[in-house]
Amino acid sequence: MSTSARRVAAELDASDPLAPYRDRFLPADDVVAYLDGNSLGRTPRATAERLASFVTDEWARRLIRGWDEGWLDLPVDVGDELGAAVLGAAAGQTLVADSTTVNLFKVLHAACGLRPGRDEIVASAADFPTDRYVVEQVAAQRSMTVRWLQPDLVENVTPDVLGEVLGERTAVVSLSHVDYRSSALLDLPALTEQIHDSGALAVWDLCHSAGVVPTNLDEAGVDLAVGCTYKFLNAGPGAPAFLYVAREHLATADQPIMGWFSAADLFEMADAYRAATDVRRMLSGTPNVLGIVAVQCGVQLVAEAGIDAVRAKSTRLTSYLIDLLDEAGATVLSPRAADRRGSHVSIQVPDAAEAGRRLVEAGVIPDVRRPDLLRLGLSPLSTSFAEVLDGFDVLRSVVLPS
């Protein structure tokens, strides 16, 4: 790589207000460039310290007394922190619990129940497999029909595409805020308004935007949402997910996995189930306390940096990478407009699995989507411009045509 290119990257890092956050993560000594933060974020130093402290100070010393000393409230308390820092959600509407799959199952059932007499669910045929599988199962269990959208890879779901299938029978529309393949960022406020105009409810999957794109759920009028925390929120592999239910629906949203943690009185041990009247009604079983503690550490890191600042750096990083890829003649399959793009850049290569293998051998870790897609994820708090340049340099030498 030329001296001038190195100088540009160094200047970008020097002017980056979030550059100090890179040192807040544990390093991986054998990695030249980690370009998969959109699948699994790096490990925050604070999380490693907090979990070690939790094991020795809270679990070991307080034992079961910990439940009465704060553990019981963690799903709601950390949910409120996440809502405030990341989702634009007022307190009492967000929970941290379960997995994205389980939470999507819950909120889709709840949403369909809130629109009796309507028998269609609208979803994207290009969505992540979990979303499609869950939509199909919920529809089958409720004797409903799925209307599948067939969006363009880059343009994705637009008002025109959505308008072709919306109607009086539409109960729920389930969409992903950022396309997991191309990084296309959907217009959440506009599409939500269009869904409401049809009388349906909007369910959003925020997995690829939570922690890197402001969502402002309350302001946009989103009805229900789900998302994971192990990508840009850096909460660790398999960390608990989150769900959001707008306040107006809390009293009547019925979910299908009732458990003792969603009961009005956890310790009544009543013969008949009576749901909590607040967001706790969306819980099920005993929460993963260690996992939620890790989520809290990741959320607090984003809250400290500020979601708007994180988004600003994300657009700079992805724009910088796209410029490099264009100069090298790569086939970029992500939107060119920064405001239409999430925080990963996708390129087309002949054999993505083989390309990914070669990159990993050379110390660059991307994400592979077979047969021909490489996703290059840029996590703003832990990724520098110099690291992007290092990764690109390897990519160009082992994958891209000369």
From TrEMBL:
Pfam families: Aminotran_5 (PF00266). Residues 84-352 form the Aminotransferase class V domain. GO terms for molecular function: kynureninase activity; pyridoxal phosphate binding. It catalyses: L-kynurenine + H2O = anthranilate + L-alanine + H(+); 3-hydroxy-L-kynurenine + H2O = 3-hydroxyanthranilate + L-alanine + H(+). GO terms for cellular component: cytoplasm. The keyword Protein transport does not apply. One of its GO terms (biological process) is L-tryptophan catabolic process to kynurenine. Its cofactor is pyridoxal 5'-phosphate. Its EC number is 3.7.1.3. Catalyzes the cleavage of L-kynurenine (L-Kyn) and L-3-hydroxykynurenine (L-3OHKyn) into anthranilic acid (AA) and 3-hydroxyanthranilic acid (3-OHAA), respectively. NCBIfam families: kynureninase (TIGR01814). Belongs to the kynureninase family. Homodimer. This is Kynureninase.
